[in-house]
Amino acid sequence: MLAEFSIIPIGAGSSIGDQLAEVLRIVDASGLPYKINPMGTVVEGEWDEVIRLVKRCHKTIMKTGERAVTTISIKDRKGKPNRKDQKVKSIEKRIGKSLKK
Amino acid sequence: MLAEFSIIPIGAGSSIGDQLAEVLRIVDASGLPYKINPMGTVVEGEWDEVIRLVKRCHKTIMKTGERAVTTISIKDRKGKPNRKDQKVKSIEKRIGKSLKK
Amino acid sequence: MLAEFSIIPIGAGSSIGDQLAEVLRIVDASGLPYKINPMGTVVEGEWDEVIRLVKRCHKTIMKTGERAVTTISIKDRKGKPNRKDQKVKSIEKRIGKSLKK
Amino acid sequence: MLAEFSIIPIGAGSSIGDQLAEVLRIVDASGLPYKINPMGTVVEGEWDEVIRLVKRCHKTIMKTGERAVTTISIKDRKGKPNRKDQKVKSIEKRIGKSLKK
């Protein structure tokens, strides 16, 4: 399945970049295929491995902070692996032009 | 922590009420404190028990369907149990009037 | 259409209750049918009136704060007014029992 | 401000690629800076221009469909334009390595 997640530390002042860097270090080391974008991180894998990764990131933020808001969106489709790259390519093929990524 | 989740079965035609009823039966039987609203279900518990419940609901929808979109929003705050009811009451106290729930 | 929205002020310390009270005051005065829950506010109306309300709330938070994260989820269905109450009732009817709200 | 949005047509069968292609054509023609990812589209602009674009996309889907779920996440920060590219670069600088995008 494909999932996008985002973690917002609350009450840590308005610069939260150090905490997000910590999260991305964990994602990058996880071995799961991922892509970051300005609003969140898209990751591909089975339910348990994706959720385990998000939990580790969320708990890391909660270790130093008082409060966090974590959002997870899951798109699951039977028999469709490697959708992270295929989804965008499939749209581009239909439109007949390359889109900004 | 507090979490709200919503599961949308895709490709099952535009009436998805039977599938959502199945999900709510699972939530109601889970024993976790919950509240449903027209857009999703708010549930309170520890990370593992909340996520286990959402997984069971998601997998139930995927058993009969081809595709689903599941969204989970988590608000976590150290040392604040029973927030499901307290959060709304705290807002009402500040405003000095009862709100529609 | 039905919409749920939530506004999180960032960098305002970990107690954000006063700012959320301000938002709920605006919602309550808007005249649109709404229901608050511990994770957000569900409101029913046409696209423009719903979005105008969310914008007013978001801009109010940004007036005193540096940063905010606002999430809007919209469920739109042709020819289905008054869904705020009907959706939950329809699920309860299928299950044959009253759910926690 | 930065916003990510995603539109899910419901009841249109499980292949919704043609409708998403239609949406991306509108985004690409809008002139607003955007980036698509496998879960949604990130767009940067002022509140009104971003919301106008999302409305046009949502209404296009509702013209041919019965039902749609549209999600919009907004990250707003005073005095921080061009964040679409800067946010990711800022994280990479802190980590000291290039991430997958």
Describe the protein.
The structure is a homotetramer of 101-residue chains. With 101 residues, chain A is α+β, with helices and mostly antiparallel strands. Chain A has helices spanning 17-29, 47-64, 83-95, and strands at residues 2-10, 34-37, 40-44, 67-77. Chain A contains 3 helices and 4 strands; from the N terminus they run E-H-E-E-H-E-H. Chain A has a 4-stranded antiparallel beta sheet with strand order 2-3-1-4, covered by helices on one side. In chain A, helix 1 (17-29) runs antiparallel to helix 2. Chains in contact: A-B, A-C, A-D, B-C, B-D, C-D. The interface between A and D is large, with 38 and 38 residues. Strand 4 (67-77) of chain A pairs antiparallel with strand 4 of chain B.
Features:
101 residues; alpha+beta; four-stranded antiparallel sheet; 3 helices; globular
Break the fold down into its secondary structure elements and pairings:
4 copies of one chain form a homotetramer.
Chain A: E1 2-10, H1 17-29, E2 34-37, E3 40-44, H2 47-64, E4 67-77, H3 83-95
Antiparallel strand pairs in A: 1-3, 1-4, 2-3
Helix pairs in contact in A: 1-2
